[in-house]
Amino acid sequence: MNTQKTPIEPSVVRNVDALRHLFSDNEQIAFHYLESNAGSPAAVIAYIRVLIDMERLQQHILPQMSKHYRASGFDAQALEESAAAQGFEQTLEDMDLAVHMIVSAGIVLFVEGYSHAFGMSLPGYGKRSVDEPMLEVNVRGPRVGFIEDIGINLGLIYRRLKTNKLKSKKYMIGRDSQTDITVIYLEDQVSPDVLQEVDRRLNTIRLNVLTDSAQIEEWIQDSPYSPFPQIQNTERPDRVATALNQGRVAILTDGSPNVLLVPAVITDLLHPSEDLYEKFYFANFLRILRLITLFISLFLPSIYIALSTFHLEMIPTPLMLTFLSAKAGIPLPTFLEALVMEIAFEILREASIRLPRTVGQSVSIVGALIIGEAAVQSGLVSRPIVIIVALTGIASFTIPSFNTAIAIRMLRFPLMFIAAWTGVLGISLCLFALILHLCSLKSFGKPYITTLEMVKWRDFISHYVLLPVKHRRLSRMQASPALRRGSTHEDD
Amino acid sequence: MKMIKRSIALLLSMAMLAGCSSDIREISDIALVMLTSIDYNEKKQEYIFTVNCLEASTNSSDSSERKSEWIASASGKSIFEAARNLRSRAGKILVWQHDKFFLIGESAARRSFYEVVDFLTRTREIRLSSFLIVGEGPALELMRMRAETGDLVSNEILGRIKNEQLWGKSLSITIKDVVNYYTNPYRGFVTGKLSKSMPIGGTREVIFLSGGSVIKEGKLSNWLTKEDTLSIHILVDKKYWRHLEFAEYVPYKSLNVGLRLHVNKRSMKLVHINGKQGIDIHIGLTGTIASLDNHLNLADPVKLRELENAANRYMERKLKKSLNRFQQVMKTDIIGFSDYLRHYHPYLWRKISAHWVTEVYPSMPTRVHVDVSIPTIGMSEVLGGSKDD
Predict the structure, then answer these.
(1) What domain of life does the native source organism fall in (chain B) (predicted)?
(2) How far away is chain B from the Cα of A418, in angstroms, using its nearest Cα?
């Protein structure tokens, strides 16, 4: 950044000239003059038309200021007082700050004879209202989700944690976008190491335009080449509040409804926030179910390929007889069958996401019924593979975090190749490599498989099993300090 | 970026490798062998190898029933050659891993049961947990019989083996059991017997799994009756006792009592009988009353004891008769006395082992004690008949 500041001139006209020069060829810049009794410009208000609330400016701020200025007998001091009363609360010492205020939906008041300016934020651009999140849908629990406005998002979190220990730090990232980033944490819960690391990594970001938190995520995560996300993102304020209470750090980005939570370990990505709102045994049942579906969505097609091409003896005889009749006359080898159906499924899934909601539904019906049924009827693919692909697809929808689900979806394909090449041996080698990779991953210094740093059974159990709420609190208090500060406990 | 390029290159190379493996067997290219039989043709001095296969048929229009059964035979000088000659007729890859039955024809069993077992154990594809059954007459003919229920023949036989424990009059053992028995040259063993006959009220002959076949010195020596097979179950098959349940019709005074019996325990010891060393066998049975042909006050402990004693005597007689047949007629140690003596009386065994088969075993005195207990008598007290018995 340029360290040499451009000063604000005492002359309004010169300031206007300077701004006109900075915003040359920009028709959205506007100036509103307040004239003195001599007819010369005594003050000017500069803003960008499309960003600010024009109605408030024209109907309230300008008439009030002008009236007060005239009534005081064109006194500059009175103008300053009137400006303060109208909400010009920031004093801008140099032209760069003034420009920043203008581009961030603010209005700036230059007064003749003053070598500083006054600024107020007056955003008037369109915003979505607070709504239910699209991706993280809960049956029970709060329905509110973040929107694109960082101020509102912060408000949603602050009203859930009414404590002075909730701290925030502001960053500005993006040379041109000048996007506001706010890091928030609970002072008494957070690990200073994590906080320091977040600060260090955010300061390394070099971007021209920051439009979404995903860019930050990719920039600051530990292993950007790993398919597994090491940073959790959420649209739910309740989830952020829970995470803050676990000693994690939330990173909010202006213009993005996704808040990043660090550090994130694998269990954070497999358990939805709804777990905390259900009775603990239902929640635990669902956790086990999700582990099974995780395994299914990753391994089922490859296990099917391996068993049906290499290890026919591992299939029970009655099942083998069923497969034998199903596979009769199918021209494609099992591997290609599986690959074609998996790719077809991915195409359908992608299409139904991109299409408008109303059309999307019909695409999935057409895809499932017409393609699946027609492919079987015409003898192109066998029935078992349709069941396998459908089961795999449905299983992958149960993974609550979308980016983890993508990772699993992508890993399925290499696994299928390996299964078709070396059978169960290859699958077990892949599983081994996968476990090694997961064990080597870290998120802001925390092991991704948190169990690695656990020494007590109690910690281990409370990490994977959701205990009844009373014991949950107890377990957190008794956990080792390192863990307590880390992101290892589900908490209320 | 380098890493991404490398992983893409790896993936692409894997795509080319997928399908290159020579071990790949697609389900649509295989024929599942469900039943195998081995016969011997004395005249031509050739083995006949027959398989009953299931394969996916491509020309059937009904997609739900696309299985077709295929029975084919081939002959050769050795079993292996015969099995390989069969490949000239098979349109698909034959897969033996799902074959649960090996049927050996009478001629092959009498000539070289040992060779057949040796071939089966040396072949990697064959599961040692499959059943080895001897067929009465040519196995080829039994293979071509249709199943009585209309199901696959192999499924039907499997069901019959599962039902064995509920009547005890047939005995099927697996290849690995056969191999285990072979380690002791002094003893013989019993495996299943498959025969055909006309069922009651039937119109065509069907296959039956009943009785047993006695294998002695690596060859089929005798057939075993149903009664003797049951005795073998009671005396030998400790691991089946938990499930074994058999019916006996015991005469008691003027009545006949139907009993459902379970084996609890069996013990064997070396004793002196009439001045000679002999074997004393103790059998514990538990009985449940299945039927009475007249009124009997079972609640009276004296009567119950009498009934138990009658059952003891009846069972002792039966088992002794079987034992006499095994020793004196068949002259084959199918109970495993030699195993017992070798393990528990090694010094004695060393002295007698040389003459065990020819002299010692056929003349060894045996004594059987049976202890039947009837712990429950049932709820029904009076069902017709007079009060006096």
Answers:
(1) Bacteria
(2) 7
Each residue's pLDDT expressed in tens, for chain B with a length of 389 residues = 787 788 778 777 766 666 566 678 888 888 889 999 999 999 999 999 999 988 876 554 454 455 678 889 999 999 999 999 998 888 888 889 899 999 999 999 999 899 999 999 998 889 999 999 999 999 988 888 888 887 888 888 888 888 888 888 888 899 999 999 988 889 999 999 999 988 888 888 888 888 999 999 889 999 999 999 999 999 886 777 778 889 999 999 888 999 999 998 889 999 998 888 999 999 999 999 888 888 888 888 898 999 999 999 999 999 999 999 999 999 999 999 999 999 999 999 999 999 998 889 999 999 999 999 999 887 776 554 455 54
Q: How far apart are CA A73 and CA B161, in angstroms?
A: 115
pTM greater than 0.90 (yes/no): no
Q: Distance (Å, rounded) from C-alpha B290 to C-alpha B74?
A: 50
Closest CB to A417 among B18, B67, B100: B18
What is the domain extent for residue B171? 27-224
Count of residues for chain B?
389
At A10, give phi and psi (nearest 5°): -70, -20
**A413 contact residues in B (CB cutoff 8 A):** 11
Identify the CA nearest to A107 among candidates A64, A54, A151, A181: A54
Length of chain A (residues): 492
**Number of CB atoms found within 10 A of residue B125's CB:** 11
Residues in chain A whose beta carbon is closer than 8 A to a beta carbon of chain B? Answer: 225, 308-310, 312-313, 317, 320-321, 323-330, 333-335, 413-414, 417-418, 420-423
Domain membership of residue A202 (yes or no) is yes
Residue that finishes a domain, picked among A236, A264, A292: A264
- Residues of B with CB below 8 A from A320's CB? 27, 32, 98
Which residue range is the domain that position A198 belongs to?
Answer: 150-264
Asked if A257 contacts A146 with a C-beta cutoff of 8 angstroms, the reply is: yes
Alpha helix locations (H) across chain B? 2-17, 79-85, 106-122, 139-143, 153-163, 175-182, 226-235, 301-324, 337-344, 346-352, 361-363
Report yes or no: B15 and B35 within 8 Å, Cβ to Cβ: no
Q: CA B332, B334, B339, B341 torsion: positive or negative?
A: negative
Report the number of distinct structural domains present in chain B.
2
Asked whether the beta carbons of A403 and A358 are under 8 A apart, the reply is no
What ipTM did this prediction achieve? 0.80
Both B196 and B333 in a single domain? no
Q: Is residue B125 part of a domain?
A: yes
| Residue-wise burial string across A157-166, b where 16 or more C-beta atoms lie within 10 A, e elsewhere | beebeeeeeb
Closest CA to B287 of B203, B376, B180: B376
Cα first-last separation, chain B: 98
Residue A96 CB-half CA count within 13 A: 7
Please indicate, yes or no, whether residues A256 and A298 belong to a single structural domain of this protein: no
Residue B1 forms part of a structural domain: no
Q: Which residues of B touch A321 (CB under 8 A)?
A: 32, 54, 67
Q: Which two tokens stand for residue B167?
A: 């009547």
Q: For residue A24, give both structure tokens.
A: 């040359």
